[in-house]
Amino acid sequence: MKSVTVYDIAKEANVSVATVSRVLNNTAPVKASTRERIQGLINKYQFQPNALARSLIKKETGMIGIILPDITNPFFPEVLAGLEQEARKQGYTFFLCDTGSSNLDIKEQYKRESQYLNILLEKQVDGIIMLGGRIDLHKCPKEMAKEVAEINKRVPLVFINGNLPGAKFHRVVIDEVAGGRMVTEHLIGLGHRDIAFIGGYPQMSNTVGRLEGFRAAMADAGLTVHEDWIDHGGFSVQRGKNMMGRLLDMEGDRPTAVVCANDLVGIGAIKAAVKAGLQVPRDISITGVDGVPLAASVIPELTTMSLRCLELGRSAAFVMHQLISKSADVNLLTTLTPELTIRESTAPPPSRK
Amino acid sequence: MKSVTVYDIAKEANVSVATVSRVLNNTAPVKASTRERIQGLINKYQFQPNALARSLIKKETGMIGIILPDITNPFFPEVLAGLEQEARKQGYTFFLCDTGSSNLDIKEQYKRESQYLNILLEKQVDGIIMLGGRIDLHKCPKEMAKEVAEINKRVPLVFINGNLPGAKFHRVVIDEVAGGRMVTEHLIGLGHRDIAFIGGYPQMSNTVGRLEGFRAAMADAGLTVHEDWIDHGGFSVQRGKNMMGRLLDMEGDRPTAVVCANDLVGIGAIKAAVKAGLQVPRDISITGVDGVPLAASVIPELTTMSLRCLELGRSAAFVMHQLISKSADVNLLTTLTPELTIRESTAPPPSRK
DNA sequence: GTGAAAGCGCTAACAG
DNA sequence: CTGTTAGCGCTTTCAC
């Protein structure tokens, strides 16, 4: 099972390893006849140069590490697809590190992030892209931020939709505030005045941003926000159901529209509403945020803010490539504007008696 | 930006590199005092041993390559999560190769598979796991199968839900025929006699298997299958809509139940049915296959055959680990039985006049 | 316990 | 055009 090396090829071709290396990388002219002889042997033995040895000396591996919290959340595969599309052209390959947060306590998750960060460093990846986890924290503990800052000194680092205090990082982000604002304005434009906001976590910056946009839109329209109608508690369908259920169970007036922190919560909210005997959007309008394909698959199809996942991925790959190839003036911050996608889950409020 | 090496540590600690290596791997006893001195320096410089150099000599990288056709299809992240869960314990990390088939012509996809296979070999991964693509073909062209057989000689290879002619491969599969049969029997048990089957591709073995199970269940119940009601054409929500639309537009009798080749098609079918003014399951029952979380998110929730994606992933990781650690008697074939998940999209047929 | 030295498989000067 | 040689950073005999 001994694998063949440049030496084996060289010997059989009666040349030196240098020449073999030359045809492999065509890094210098080689006489046509010897080149063909060597190429023939390469094919004959299906010779594959050992990338480890090559990377060891060239100090580049063509590998990009990706750290994300949960591949099972459809947002991430979507971003990943964008990353792959762009990075493949440049010849990069991906190291996928899923911290598997979905069934983990939060501290364990951050520990895994640290572990993976170190593993990626040891594997000599050319760059690391982070999504979710600690970079999503509205206020990240100093120690955890510092660790990442240290790593940023050793290898190119790009954040997608996140940030960390205490240092400057390269980031590709969607404008969360604009997203929250636009979706709320859509509802207000439809005639809604009593609007709730559910989902997410108050300690996460995406939630904070979306909520801030929501408040801004309400304020601009001269509407007051019912603090009772603001609820947090997660990003899953199940959590969406729970929060919506709670909202519907409340005494007194009901909102005529609900802004959900993401699509999964939006879907859960629709389910809870339907279960409570309401019709969406006739009785209540519901919106999501993310724009994952899933949102177009439910009935009624979810009106949402597309976070343009694919482009987010592509942009990040682009920034990473610039960083790796040491281009001058790489933008520290790339901001994308989300896109309102109006579908079937929103309509004017039921007319009041 | 020069990174520190064992030599730097050794010099400053006044020991040889061998000793540093010993404390790094504790591969031999080292005097407590020198060990501490060295450990101190390691911490001080945040020294990370270069995994490339290490792998070069140890001939193992702890990396497993994964080749899959489309990370955007929720089936794959689910399997991936299972893989990760199991493989993390063993200290493996993943190389993700998405051939991005969703927006590719089919030939291009196979070419990418070949490319990735080669890249993974060069990167010296300890093993390769394949999902989808050519291993899903009912009849894979000889050349394409042979290429994979060659690779199987050089590095451990595991297929998830697939196979290739001309050689023996290690495989972890779900019993597709049983799946098709069980879901059909569920419908028959409910009283359905007029059942359609839509989705998938006739050249793919999963479709062939599911359809075979469908036919077997029908035959066992003494029911005849309407060949007109068997339609193929893909695995996406959109395709499901199209196929279901076609079915509903047909002259003559209508089926009272539809077995869909996967969950996405099932969701598309529900959408088409609802759009046509039918109620699911009152007027028509619809089932899926896959058991992705999404299937539980739609309204009505989709009755489906769970392919037990997580376990599929875990089993594959387990088999791979055995292969890598050269355990004796690794099972060539691991078969899981799918699980019927009854939800809301199936009910007895409407009573006839 | 510890050090010297020989590679792992490849690339990159530097000579010819 | 081509060969010689010195490493990349680490592990691992084999001595001491």
The end-to-end span of chain A amounts to 83 Å
Helices and strands of chain A: which structural class?
Answer: alpha/beta
Tell me, briefly, the overall form of chain A: elongated
- Whole-number total of structural domains of chain A: 3
CATH topology of the largest domain in chain A: Rossmann fold
Most residues in contact: chain pair: A-B, 56 and 55 residues
- How much β-strand is present in the residues of chain A? 15-25%
* Element pattern of chain A in H and E: HHHHEHEHEHEEHEHEHEHEEHEE
Q: Major beta sheet of chain A, specifics?
A: 6 strands, parallel
Q: Could you list the spans of chain A in which at least 5 consecutive residues all have pLDDT below 50?
A: none
Q: Tell me the helix content of chain A.
A: 40-55%
CATH superfamily of the largest domain in chain A: Response regulator
The main sheet of chain A orders its strands as 2-1-3-4-5-11
Backbone CA Rg of chain A: 26 Å
Tally the beta strands of chain A.
Answer: 12
CATH class of the largest domain in chain A, please? Answer: Alpha Beta
- The CATH architecture of the largest domain in chain A is 3-Layer(aba) Sandwich
Domain HTH lacI-type (chains A, B): 4-58
Pfam families (chains A, B): LacI, Peripla_BP_3
Organism (chains A, B): Paenibacillus rhizovicinus
GO molecular function (chains A, B): DNA-binding transcription factor activity; transcription cis-regulatory region binding
